[in-house]
């Protein structure tokens, strides 16, 4: 397991938190995901053997946000 | 039918638009509802004989927004 903090632009409200946490959390290999709306960050704990960081970033972008 | 423009604070993203338009639009007597995110307004067309403006305001506030 590895935990990474991503800087994500465009998350503005509780719906955005739910969209990111809900959809990233559904990915196989993702153990935990936590959005900090004030900081604009997403902490993700995941198993690199199961899911890539690239796939996680892609999922966030599919929800309509920019990952820096 | 009457159309009223409400000033609503706190709507920030497409999810907020969907929450307001979807839930207000479900009320009996509401014919049309349109959020303008940039202006912070909600245009509602409704039948005063079926639904009150107070009930519409309440529904928006239940979604977590402040109606001025």
TrEMBL record, chains A, B:
Instruction: Pinpoint the HMA domain residues.
Output: 2-68
Location in the cell? Cytoplasm
GO BP terms, alphabetized = copper ion transport
Tell me which InterPro entries the record gives: CopZ, Cu-bd, Heavy-metal-associated_CS, HMA_Cu_ion-bd, HMA_dom, HMA_dom_sf
Task: Give the chief site where it resides.
Answer: cytoplasm
UniProt keyword list:
Chaperone, Copper, Cytoplasm, Metal-binding
Q: Which GO terms describe its molecular function?
A: copper ion binding
Q: What is the recorded name of this protein? A: Copper chaperone CopZ
- Give a single Pfam family match: HMA
UniProt entry tagged with the keyword Chloroplast? no
Which source organism does the UniProt entry give?
A: Halalkalibacter nanhaiisediminis
Q: Name one GO cellular component term.
A: cytoplasm
């Amino acid at each position: 397991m590895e935990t990474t903090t991503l800087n994500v632009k465009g998350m503005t409200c509780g719906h955005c938190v739910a969209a990111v946490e809900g959809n990233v959390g559904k990915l196989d290999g993702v153990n935990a995901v936590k959005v900090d709306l004030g900081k604009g960050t997403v902490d993700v704990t995941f198993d690199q053997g199961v899911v890539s960081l690239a796939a996680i970033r892609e999922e966030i972008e599919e929800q309509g946000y920019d990952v820096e």
